[in-house]
Amino acid sequence: TGYITLDYGFKNTGSTQSAVTFLDGEKGILKHRGYSIEELCEKSTFLEVANLLIYGNLPNKAHLASFTESIKGYQLVHENYRKILEGFPSHTHPMGILSALATTLNAFHPEALDPHRPNEQVDLSIQKLMGKLPTFTAWAYTHAKGIAHNYPKSGLGYVENFLHMMFSTKLKEYEIDPVIVRALEKLLILHADHEQNCSASTVRIVGSSNASIYASVAAGINALWGPLHGGANQGVIQMLDEIQADGGNVEKYINKAKDKDDPFRLMGFGHRVYKNFDPRAKIIKKDADAVLAKLGVSDPILDIAKKLEETALQDSYFIERKLFPNVDFYSGIILKAIGIPTLMFPVMFAMGRLPGWIAQWKEMRENKEPIGRPRQIYTGNTDLEYKPIEMRS
Ligand code: CMC
């Protein structure tokens, strides 16, 4: 079988060639299709960045308009989704709901199961996913709250519609605040892709078996759910709340994180690739301050977050291991200020990451990559004698 290299966690193994996202972990650079994350955050909308990631170029006006219109047309979901949602206990984690609903798209749109469809038809599945995922996300929330689901409204933009579906009630239409819309746009852009991370690799490997784009993205959602990946933003707020309830004793939690006998880790700290700083964290930290100021919200956990960051960055444990705040350290503070509940944070990450998963899946398909099938180094027995059950100890 030849020589097999062992690389736990694929720390040093390239699984593909990709032209989607460039990342320099030493210098803290992140670029999508050649454009810096700083500039995209400043100048683009989320759908523009989605189009860039999926199709490779910044769209002109006409392309962006037709992409946007098509996605809008797909925001409505089949009425049976009400019944499907009713079946979930109200305490179901919204990531579980989101991945389940993404999988059910195979039932309502089975044409996606044909791996040999022409690209134009694949595009329609892509736009369906982009249209329906925010509706699923908002409906997961209204289901948990036990309130009526909202339909998307035709006059609203992508992010505005999401906020409307989340927060409008029978009694009161949600008031769109441009500050909140822009903050959310930026947050989604910041999460839009991050090359071969755990969920993107999952999407590619599942897709490499010719599974449908819906099945592949559903797998990506499940991979993102874990607290070491997209679940970290939920973990950060829970940790900051806990520190606050514990009298704001930041040092105690730093020491816990350093203690090798304690499984606790500082959530929102450290990154597999960034070893100086996470450029997304830099942008988001500034934004957290600005959004809270603009919304007139004061949140004591922002002070705890800052103190935790300052203390950790001066501590030799974190310095030696090059552990810095990552994107999720401050994202939860913005989401909380917008009124999104903590359990919903990972689903917000999923909504942002969707175009990245799609771009990675599409690239894998267009590259005609072989089925993903890692090897192993076997360490078990090879020559045991079979014992009948009555003779086993
Ligand atoms: N708190 C305390 N110690 C840590 C932390 C942390 N947050 N992160 C890493 N370390 C230590 C780890 O114990 C190890 O120490 P030692 O060398 O003494 O054994 C060393 O740093 C290297 O860590 P690692 O786990 O080998 O590094 P990794 O590249 O496998 O893991 C990570 C990267 C992001 C999973 C990890 O840093 C972590 O668990 N962070 C907390 C969870 C988190 O914030 N995740 C969000 C990542 S960014 C969003 C995304 O893209 O998903």
Automatic annotation (TrEMBL):
<dbReference type="InterPro" id="IPR002020">
    <property type="entry name" value="Citrate_synthase"/>
</dbReference>
<dbReference type="InterPro" id="IPR036969">
    <property type="entry name" value="Citrate_synthase_sf"/>
</dbReference>
<comment type="pathway">
    <text>Carbohydrate metabolism; tricarboxylic acid cycle; isocitrate from oxaloacetate: step 1/2.</text>
</comment>
<dbReference type="InterPro" id="IPR016142">
    <property type="entry name" value="Citrate_synth-like_lrg_a-sub"/>
</dbReference>
<keyword id="KW-0816">Tricarboxylic acid cycle</keyword>
<dbReference type="Pfam" id="PF00285">
    <property type="entry name" value="Citrate_synt"/>
</dbReference>
<dbReference type="InterPro" id="IPR019810">
    <property type="entry name" value="Citrate_synthase_AS"/>
</dbReference>
<dbReference type="InterPro" id="IPR016143">
    <property type="entry name" value="Citrate_synth-like_sm_a-sub"/>
</dbReference>
<protein>
    <recommendedName>
        <fullName>Citrate synthase</fullName>
    </recommendedName>
</protein>
<comment type="similarity">
    <text>Belongs to the citrate synthase family.</text>
</comment>
<keyword id="KW-0614">Plasmid</keyword>
<keyword id="KW-0808">Transferase</keyword>
<dbReference type="InterPro" id="IPR010953">
    <property type="entry name" value="Citrate_synthase_typ-I"/>
</dbReference>
<dbReference type="InterPro" id="IPR024176">
    <property type="entry name" value="Citrate_synthase_bac-typ"/>
</dbReference>
